[in-house]
Design a protein that fits this description.
Layout (H helix, E strand, L loop, with lengths): L2 H6 L11 H19 L2 H30 L9 H17 L6 H17 L4 H4 L4 H24 L4
Length: about 160
C-alpha cells in the first residue's frame, strides 16, 4: 500500500468493506473519550486539535494522488476527512457546550456528525464541488459545524 493511500485511509480504516466513513469517524471519537476519561478535558481537546490539523493536511495534500490512482472524484477509502470533521465536532462541542462526562457527549457528537456527513445539508453538498482534496475535506468540516450548531441550539437546552 502506498503512503498516500495509507494516510488518507487513516491507516486502513477506510479500507474496511462496510461503512468506511463511520470507521474513520469512530477513531477520533474513541481517542477523545479515552483521553478525556483517562487524562482530562485539556488532553482530549489537544488530541482533537492534532487530529483536526493532521486530517486536514493529509486530505488536502494526499487525496489528489488517491483520486488519480482510483479515477474516483471522492473515493470512499479516503476517511482522513471524516477524522478531521469528527475532531472538529468534538473540539467545538467541548468548547461551546457545557458538558459533564465524556461518554454521552462523545456519542451525541459522533451521531450528529455522521448524520450531517451523510445527509449533506447546505452548504455541504456545494462544498464537495471544490477541487480535489479541498472538496472532500470542506463538506466534512461543514458537517461538523452543523452538528455542533444543532447540538447547542436544539439538544443542549433539553438536557
Amino acid at each position: 500500500m502506498n503512503t498516500h493511500k495509507l494516510l488518507t485511509s487513516s491507516f486502513g480504516l477506510g479500507l474496511v468493506p462496510v461503512v468506511p466513513g463511520t470507521c474513520g469517524s469512530l477513531a477520533p471519537a474513541v481517542i477523545y473519550m479515552a483521553a478525556g476519561i483517562l487524562i482530562g478535558p485539556q488532553t482530549a481537546m489537544g488530541a482533537m486539535v492534532v487530529l483536526l490539523v493532521l486530517g486536514c493536511m493529509i486530505t488536502v495534500i494526499c487525496s489528489p494522488k488517491v483520486i488519480a490512482a482510483t479515477g474516483d472524484k471522492d473515493p470512499g477509502q479516503i476517511v482522513s476527512d471524516e477524522v478531521a470533521g469528527q475532531a472538529l465536532t468534538l473540539l467545538l462541542a467541548q468548547w461551546l457546550i457545557p458538558m459533564t462526562g465524556f461518554c454521552t457527549p462523545t456519542a451525541i457528537g459522533f451521531g450528529l456528525f455522521r448524520l450531517f456527513d451523510i445527509t449533506k445539508p447546505w452548504p455541504c453538498r456545494q462544498l464537495e464541488k471544490l477541487p480535489a482534496g479541498w472538496g472532500i475535506l470542506a463538506d466534512d468540516l461543514a458537517a461538523g459545524i452543523w452538528a455542533v450548531a444543532v447540538w447547542r441550539i436544539l439538544i443542549y437546552p433539553l438536557v
